[in-house]
Design a protein that fits this description.
The chain is an alpha+beta fold. The protein folds into 2 domains: 172 residues, Glutamine synthetase/guanido kinase, catalytic domain (Creatine Kinase, Chain A, domain 2), CATH 3.30.590.10; 101 residues. The protein has 12 helices and 11 strands. α3 crosses α11, α8 packs across α9 and α9 packs antiparallel against α10. It is globular and about 65 Å long. One of its GO terms (molecular function) is protein arginine kinase activity. Catalyzes the specific phosphorylation of arginine residues in proteins.
Length: 362
């Protein structure tokens, strides 16, 4: 089986780019919740209203190009297979709620997958902009410009005192959720993360797993986001979050330095054992794969491993998820079959990277 086409087409273009502090911060995201005047909120609207909203966005924005992100395509959840929806969740392009609980849901997706606009999720629309590394300010600027573009064609539900009106009271105000995805293996290994998370929560921020609320922090990847949307400007929310993220970056780097000084050979051994598992295993579960990939990524960042790109690990964190594995298998797989395919995919991808580096050295 050839894997080249799979890797060339399956990963969003922004995932393969480097950003500021991308050794620790995988991505920055701004999400804006908006509702449209003259329609009831999704919690109480009728199926006819839901379909009208989808039609409105399909007629107004589908197949239109916007700046550098390219053309928008509309994907209706009712027309997608369960595996296809799961792939979109794994790529962080839609929420699990839209995939599982929104029969009249849809998504406008930009050509480069940097922008997705979820339709009929918890609110009428949720605008999402994704950037590599720590680029919250840039993501906010892009989201605001996109928001203005959409507002040229629709009227938002807005109150002069409260701000943007949303289905959930916790989103009223700016309607904005700013978040960063961070790789924090050293803070986990030193167990500092156990005291850091409660401290972050007390500051009005929330720490979640890889896929948001209720999900596990697979591969030592954590999502940090704001909880407060009312009484603060978008800029203040981003500034507060960015300040905490920079402190976390500094703490993670100090923890890495401490591990190298005190447990260097043990840490190096852990990294290469994990690499050995990935390069040679014939079956591997997603949780073990995520942990091994986290170890290898840490080894790359610390200079233990020199022939593997950090971005390869970013790709594999997503490409080895159940949805992707089943999509490219052409149908549903039993857990054991997924474990076999996951191992084969990782082995082949590492071999491809080694061959590329060998050719570059010649």
């Amino acid at each position: 089986m050839s894997f080249e086409k799979f890797f060339n087409t399956a990963v969003s273009s922004w995932m393969s780019q480097e950003g500021p502090d991308s050794d620790i911060v995988l991505s920055s995201r701004i999400r804006l919740a908006r509702n449209i005047v003259d329609f009831r909120f999704p919690t109480v609207f009728s199926s006819e209203e839901a379909q009208q909203i989808v039609s409105l966005f399909e007629q107004t924005f589908a197949h239109r190009s916007y700046h550098s992100v390219g053309r928008f395509e509309l994907l209706k959840m009712s027309e997608l297979q369960p595996i296809e929806k799961r792939v979109l969740v794994e790529k962080h392009l839609i929420s699990p709620h839209l995939a599982e609980d929104s029969p009249f849901g849809a998504c406008l997706l930009s050509e480069n997958e940097e922008v997705s606009i979820m339709i009929n999720e918890e609110d009428h629309i949720r605008i999402q902009c994704l950037f590599p590394g720590l680029q919250l300010t840039e993501a906010l600027e892009a989201a605001n410009e996109l928001d203005d573009w959409i507002e040229e064609h629709v009227n938002y539900a807005f109150d002069e005192k409260l701000g943007y009106l949303t289905s959930c009271p916790t989103n009223v105000g700016t309607g904005m959720r700013a978040s960063v995805m961070m790789h924090l293996p050293a803070l986990v290994l030193t167990q500092q993360i156990n005291r850091i998370i409660p401290a972050i929560n007390q500051l009005g921020l929330v720490v979640r797993g890889t896929y948001g609320e209720g999900s596990e922090a697979l591969g030592n990847i954590f999502q940090i986001s704001n909880q407060i949307t009312l009484g603060k400007s978008e800029e203040d929310i981003v500034e507060d979050l960015q300040s905490i993220v920079k402190q976390l970056i500094a703490q993670e780097r100090m923890a890495r330095e401490a591990l190298v000084k005190t447990l260097n050979i043990k840490l190096e051994d852990r990294v290469f054992r994990s690499y050995g598992i990935l390069a040679n295993c014939r079956m591997i579960e997603s949780k073990e794969a995520a942990q091994c990939l986290s170890d290898v990524r840490l080894g790359i960042d610390l200079g233990y491993i020199k022939n593997i790109s950090r971005n390869i690990l970013n790709e594999l964190m997503i490409l080895t998820q159940p949805g992707f594995l089943q999509q490219y298998a052409g149908g549903a797989l039993r857990p054991e079959e997924r474990d076999v395919r996951r191992a084969a995919l990782i082995r082949e991808r590492l071999k491809m990277e080694e061959r590329k580096n060998m050719e570059g050295d010649e």
